[in-house]
Amino acid sequence: MIAFSRAIEDFDDSAFHRLEVEAKGESLRVWLDSKLLDFEQGRKVGNVVSIPPAWEGPPKLGKNDGTTGIFFGAEDNRNLIGGQQAKNLRVTRRQTL
Prior knowledge:
Layout: E1 19-24, E2 27-32, E3 35-36, E4 39-41, E5 44-46, E6 49-50
Antiparallel strand pairs: 1-2, 2-3, 2-6, 4-5
């Protein structure tokens, strides 16, 4: 894990939410329901997460070929799957809000 966001107050876990992720170069930004999220990374809080290409070394560990990932956590069920779902998953260029 390179960064994390705090739990959102009054989050409706019975509804589907719109999640948008922008990974560009060595930075990442995330919107949930059109709201830009803040993350903690290296004891600093901000809405841009640094995603340096650590796999390029040294030592060289591989090449990502432009990949990224999404991880859903379950704070109350540590080390267990939280039951999260994704539907209508699309990978596109992000449109300006």
